[in-house]
Amino acid sequence: MATSPLSVPLNVFKIHQTMASPFVPEVVKAVDALHLEFRAVDNMVACNTTRVLRAFQNARVGSHHFGGCTGYGHDEAGGRGALDQAFAEIVGAESAIVRSQFFSGTHAITCALFALLRPGDELLAVAGAPYDTLEEVIGKRKSGGLGSLQDFGVKYREVPLTEDGELDWNALTSAVKPKTKCALIQRSCGYSWRRSLSVNDIGRAIKIIKMQNPSCSVMVDNCYGEFVESIEPPMVGADLIAGSLIKNPGGTIAPCGGYIAGKQKWVEAAAARLSAPGLGVDCGSTPGDIMRAFFQGLFLSPQMVGEAIKGTFIIAEVLASKGYKVQPLPRVPRFDTVQAVQLGSRERLLAFCEAVQRSSPVGSYTKPVAGTTAGYASEVIFADGTFIDGSTSELSCDGPLREPFAVFCQGGTHWTQWGLVLGEVLKSL
């Protein structure tokens, strides 16, 4: 027989009432102040979970889809197609490819850009400089003749941000030229001190771009933005989006991989860059344990993203109260899962990352060391004591060793994780 809450022994409630808080006072105060924001996040999680569940049902996902395949991948039992179908519906796209063969978000974005651009075309970055790892892909930073877009004769321009870190809407109205065949929009802030873009911002930019050149394709770097809002860029006109499965859409479970979604012809062209022209999307092996993790991670991702967003609210609330500049500001809507904090010195940036590493479940005994990392122009320090290497959706932080010495915090499987980490961080700063 079900037990009424009124019949629960009073001593159970007393235990919870007298239990000492594991959080430092600053975190307790922040959590008490954020109940309305947390409630709004929970509502958003419910809406996005509904969308994911409906897509899984429409794709008729079954346990036979978790079997995986070997070799060429021709004997695949339908999981690849079901996953692609569900993902495309979730993000509002005509088509999608979700593959373990994408090494990273940068790899997926690169395949998308090479699908859209040909020699003599122009690529226009409309939200300032792109993320560091794309500089060699584009040719903005020398790649040593290894095949950047500029090596293949693709021209590049960018629309700088305004002085206050916003998109320059006035400049954008005249930035697109007849040779501009692709406009790149980076949804998240990357390593820039700017507000991340909402999907409505992206939709507004797409309209301005298409008014100047209807044949210009729009590619959105969607990393860190998935499931933060109730809509995604293809729903407002993006031709392609791309991202990583060890970020938001992998739900902290996917062990590798990435995705591209959007217009079918461009998804097929991107698939040809991942594999080879003529091979298409119906090839490539994926072990069964990975295929199951892709489905399960995608289903869980709205919840994991919600917890990460709550973590950003707590980080901003606590560190702004200590006088640090934060981006986004406390209690404002979030458009990605990244919380940036200006620490002002190399020593504080190192100390912050060391504190996060000490508070991690994996490798807590190690000390992160700043150094050169493939794809990055500056020295970078990473703290990521994660079960999956580099999984920023679990809990991590990183930052380039350059002014203004900002740390970029991501992920967290539950907001309490960042609540606990901040206790260690405050002792270190």
TrEMBL record:
InterPro entries per the record? Met_g_lyase_put, PyrdxlP-dep_Trfase, PyrdxlP-dep_Trfase_major
Transmembrane ranges? none
Question: Source organism's superkingdom?
Answer: Eukaryota
Q: Name one Pfam family in it.
A: Met_gamma_lyase
What's the protein name?
A: Methionine gamma-lyase
